[in-house]
Amino acid sequence: AKSDKKYKRILLKLSGEALMGDAEFGIDPKVLDRMAVEVGQLVGLGVEIGMVIGGGNLFRGSALHAAGMERVTGDHMGMLATVMNALAMRDALERAGISTRVMSAIPMSGVVEHYDRRAAMRHLRNGDVVIFAAGTGNPFFTTDSAACLRGIEIDAQLILKATKVDGVYSADPMRVPDAVKFEYLTYDEVLDKKLGVMDLTAICLVRDHDIPVCVFNMQKPGSLLNNVMGTTDGTLIGV
Ligand code: UDP
């Protein structure tokens, strides 16, 4: 089915919260194992996969700052949290037989590779999953912005943002029962309607570079595969 696939190279963004399952904090290896199965299906189809993982299950700079810590220190801790999540994800992927690299924006010799775009491209062409850790390496950014930045850098054809709901809704579907789901949105609609899909930096980056973003539910089995095969199962944001 190799010729059927719509997207050859993708960037998958997982929030840190997606890794904690039903817990309030931390990492649930069982959740990671389920994700590894879904990612493995794509690898089997020859899709090249870059990943960015958030850190919100461990630390967020803004939350630490609100509790009294200096913001930049908090952001550094948040970025280090994404490295821990990346190590856990690599562990799950490798146990599932999927060759994986972690490249960190903050050098951490002996633990992970330092991000190098050309090396990342080589790994992707070799069929290795590449997890981009430590966000952009800079405070005051988010891992959504890191996902869009790395997605653009590696020439991804699609950025997939995994969330707890199956797309973008007119209001929070957990709270507003008659909230409607959008099948398709332009970048400008996301901005005008203040839908809060991603922060402004991230949306503006993808808009400037015309990369489509798919918002979908990673907990729904097969949804990742469908979206990558070109059948939208979520919300597609594009031009
Ligand atoms: N962070 C940062 N720069 C980046 C990416 C992330 O400073 O380029 C910090 C920031 O403090 C953020 C934390 O890392 O709160 C975790 O990332 P994020 O909140 O995006 O994780 P998610 O919500 O996706 O789990």
Automatic annotation (TrEMBL):
In what residue span(s) does the Aspartate/glutamate/uridylate kinase domain sit? 8-217
Q: Which CDD domains match?
A: AAK_UMPK-PyrH-Ec
> In the Enzyme Commission scheme, what number(s) does this protein have?
2.7.4.22
Look up keyword Kinase and say if it applies: yes
Keywords from UniProt, A to Z, are:
ATP-binding, Cytoplasm, Kinase, Nucleotide-binding, Pyrimidine biosynthesis, Transferase
Q: Which Pfam families match?
A: AA_kinase
Reactions mediated catalytically: UMP + ATP = UDP + ADP
Sequence positions that bind ATP: 13-16, 56, 60, 163, 169, 172
Q: What class of enzyme is it?
A: transferase
Q: Where does UMP bind?
A: 55, 75, 136-143
Q: Name one GO cellular component term.
A: cytosol
What one GO molecular function would you report for this record?
UMP kinase activity
Subcellular location field: Cytoplasm
GO BP annotations of the record are: 'de novo' CTP biosynthetic process; UDP biosynthetic process
Q: In which pathway does it act?
A: Pyrimidine metabolism; CTP biosynthesis via de novo pathway; UDP from UMP (UMPK route): step 1/1
Q: How is this protein's activity kept under control?
A: Inhibited by UTP.
Domain of life of the source = Bacteria
Listed InterPro entries: AceGlu_kinase-like_sf, Asp/Glu/Uridylate_kinase, Uridylate_kinase, Uridylate_kinase_bac
Keyword hit for Nucleotide-binding: yes
What does the subunit section of this Swiss-Prot or TrEMBL entry state? Homohexamer.
Q: Which family does it belong to?
A: Belongs to the UMP kinase family.
What is the annotated role of this protein in its UniProt record?
Answer: Catalyzes the reversible phosphorylation of UMP to UDP.
Q: What is this protein called?
A: Uridylate kinase
**Species per Swiss-Prot/TrEMBL record:** Pseudohongiella spirulinae
